[in-house]
Amino acid sequence: MSAFKLLLLPGDGIGPEIVDEALKVLKALSLPIETQMALVGGAAYDAHGHPLPDATLKLAMQSDAVLFGAVGDWKYDTLDRPLRPEQAILGLRKNMGLFANFRPAICYEQLVGASSLKPELIAGLDILIIRELTGDIYFGQPRGIRTLENGECEGFDTMRYTRPEIQRIGRVAFEAARKRNRHVTSVDKSNVLETSQLWRDTMVELGKEYPDVTLEHMYIDNAAMQLVKEPKKFDVVVTGNMFGDILSDEASMLTGSIGMLPSASLNDKKQGLYEPSHGSAPDIAGKGVANPLATILSAAMMLRYSLDQNEAADRIETAVKKVLSQGLRTPDIHSPGTTRVGTREMGDAVVQALG
User: Fold this and answer.
1) Known catalytic residue: 219?
2) Most Cβ neighbours (<10 Å): which of 34, 156, 178, 240?
3) Looking at residue 298, what is its pLDDT?
4) CB-based contact 319:350 (threshold 8 Å)
C-alpha cells in the first residue's frame, strides 16, 4: 500500500495544540501516512502577508486529506476582509471543490449531563447535518457596499443556487441516509425565497430516485425550533450554506460542548478537509486546557471518508468513548465526580485506550 499524503494545517490559537494530539493518535495506529505541515490563517498572514499562501494551497491540492486546526484572532479583525484568517477556509473550500460538509452531532452517554437540555431529550442523540459549502449567499455575486443617490450606504449580497448544485448535495444526503435510518429532512425557506423554492422543487424530484428514503421538508425557522424541542426526530438534515452554518452550530451545542464535535468537508473525489467544529479560542491558547477530542474525532472521519480505513476510524471512536467512560474531562466538559485533565493528558489517554 502506498502512503497516504496528509497535510497538517494547525493554524492559530489552540490549533497547533489540538492538531498535535490528533497526530499523536494517528501515529499510534502505525498507518502508512506521510505528513507535511504548512502555515494557514493568521500565522500565514504574519509570515507571508496572506492567510492562504500559494504554497499552502498547492500542498492541499496535492494531498489525500487535510487535517485543519483553527484560524483567527482578534488582532486580525481590522484587516481588509480578503486578508483575514477566516478567508483561508473559504479559499480551501473553493479551490478544492469541497462542496459537502458533514457535521455529526452525537451525544455520548457519558456527557448527557453536560447538555443544557433535559437528558431525556438528548440521550442517544445522533444527527448528521449535511451542509452545502460552495454556493449560496456566501459566494453569490454581485455583493458589496455602495452609496445610494440619497447618500445612504447599502450593503447587498446575492443568494443563488443552480439545480446541479442542489442535486449534488442532495444525493450525498440520500446516500448517507441509506447507511443510517433512511430519513432526510431538507431545510429551506421556500415560502419567502425563490432560491429555496428551487431547492425544494429539486429535492422533491431527486427524492423519487430514492424511494427507500423518507424525505420531509422544513422551513429554517421551524427546524431551528425543532432542534431544541425534539432533536431526536432528525436523522440526516440537508440544507444550504447559510442555513447549514447556523443549524450545525446549534446542533453541536445540544451535545454539551462544541469541543466534542468533528467535521468533514469533501469533494467528489473523496478528498477532504477535516477540522473540529469549534474555533481558535485565542483566550486559552497555550494554556494546555483545550479539548482535543473534536480534532481526534475529525481524524477518525478522515480515515473513514478519505482514506477508506474504517477499522482504524472505529478504533479511535471506541477509544474516545473509553476515555470518557474513565471519567477524564477537559475543562469544557468537566463536572463534579470526573477527573480534570489537560490537552496533552487527554491525547495520551486516547492513545493508551487504543490498546
Assistant:
1) no
2) 240
3) 97
4) yes
